[in-house]
């Protein structure tokens, strides 16, 4: 039995297999409509999330399975003080696989150490969010056809943005990838990620506060939201939230085949005027998210 | 200064100068009812200055904890006045319930009964990270 807590638990070969499976599901959805008949996915969301929870639930329903769970801690026994370990043991009795989101970092790992069914980390605080990374990788693969030799720009909150850390780690395993890090000083990529991922893997990278200076080089632009819930201090949030707003004017110097991604939800960091630009891929990304979660559920349930 | 030789006990030697008290606390040596001697700033050919701890009893120590504090420490087991074992330590791969994670976002900050587990992620720079949230020890 296997869980997925951190994207690096998957080899590049396994990621390739998941992408291949997801692509096959996209091409032949009817062939997968009953693969999970009789199986139950439990979605344990201790923190609100519309997109990820519905994506998991849609993925299981499209596979013919069923779902149960809760969407906020207040409606779970955590409100009574139950530990994550006990919740995981209990829910294992009711389901075949668990997707868990929790505001505390490491909670899904604790769940996986105590559950008797596979656990998928659906986001733990500012730490890991492996299915978002799989979504990003599937989107990049479908838009670009490969991962090697891409120049990928990350813009916004690179300090608390868990999707950024995970995607950088995943991309660092491919040949010739170059990274541009664009953020305000206060939200720079943590030095340990630079040291233990970028420098260790010999990845070429630049760090800047000026998005337009790197725009012409980018094949992928990964925008992120400055997340209110990651700040202990409201003043810091208000000061930094509007640091980067992507507009059609800022895209003038960008490549014609640039691919703009965003893990969503967005607030105002991408102007709605950009939505009509064919380079805007963030809504396609949402769709890819469901397919890669379908592939992952099949893999962890060991269903072919 | 003369400290009596131990007949049956343990000598923790080559402790980096100034680290003896940390080791004393972390090993819980204050709980022992036997004689424990702490020697600070002892002249050492190898280290310049070093600390030494002598324990007047043979007991089972947590080798991983000692290795975490300083992998260059050597431990001598003395029985009937003779050294019967000299143990070289190394950095342990994991340490459990020795240090606490200081990340307020870590699950261990709210679930106090979880074991505090740290993994060695960078041997060269002696970096340990929390198993749960990957925050670096001491940060």
Please give a structural write-up:
Chain A is α/β, with parallel strands linked by helices and 304 residues long. Chain A has two domains: 7-128 and 288-300, Rossmann fold, CATH 3.40.50.1370; 131-286, Aspartate/ornithine carbamoyltransferase (Rossmann fold), CATH 3.40.50.1370. Chain A has helices at 12-27, 50-62, 84-92, 107-114, 130-144, 162-171, 191-199, 211-214, 234-240, 282-300, and strands at 40-45, 66-70, 97-102, 119-124, 151-155, 178-182, 204-208, 220-223, 259-261. In chain A, the strands form two sheets. Chain A has a five-stranded parallel β-sheet with strand order 7-6-5-8-9. Chain B is mainly β and 139 residues long. Chain B has two domains: 9-88, Alpha-Beta Plaits, CATH 3.30.70; 94-130, no CATH class. Helices cover 10% and strands 37% of the residues of chain B. Chain B has two helices and eight strands. Chain B has helices at residues 20-26, 63-69, and strands spanning 9-16, 36-44, 48-55, 74-79, 82-88, 94-96, 117-122, 127-130. In chain B, the strands form two sheets. In chain B, strands 2-3-1-4-5 form a five-stranded antiparallel β-sheet, with helices on one face. In chain B, strands 6-7-8 form a three-stranded antiparallel β-sheet, with helices on one face. In chain B, a hairpin with a 4-residue loop joins strand 7 (117-122) and strand 8. In chain B, 29% of the residues are buried. The mean pLDDT of chain B is 90. At the A-B interface, helix 4 of A face loops of B.
Summarize the entry for a quick read.
The complex is a heterodimer of chains A (304) and B (139). Chain A is α/β, with parallel strands linked by helices and 304 residues long.
CATH topology of the largest domain in chain B: Alpha-Beta Plaits
CA-based gyration radius of chain A: 19 Å
Based on CA inertia axes, which overall geometry of chain A fits?
A: globular
Tell me the total number of β-strands of chain B: 8
User: In CATH, what is the homologous superfamily of the largest domain in chain B?
Assistant: Aspartate carbamoyltransferase regulatory subunit, N-terminal domain
Number of helices of chain A: 10
Tell me, rounded to a whole number, the average pLDDT of chain A: 93
Mean of residue pLDDT of chain B? 90
Main-sheet strand order of chain B equals: 2-3-1-4-5
Uncertain stretches of 5 or more adjacent residues of chain A: none
Number of domains of chain A: 2
User: What overall geometry of chain B do the principal axes of the alpha carbons give?
Assistant: elongated
Largest sheet of chain A: 5 strands, parallel
The helix count of chain B comes to: 2
Q: Which architecture of the largest domain in chain B does the CATH hierarchy give at level 2?
A: 2-Layer Sandwich
Multimerization status = heterodimer
Strand order of the largest sheet of chain A: 7-6-5-8-9
* Main sheet characteristics of chain B: 5 strands, antiparallel
What would CATH call the architecture of the largest domain in chain A? Answer: 3-Layer(aba) Sandwich
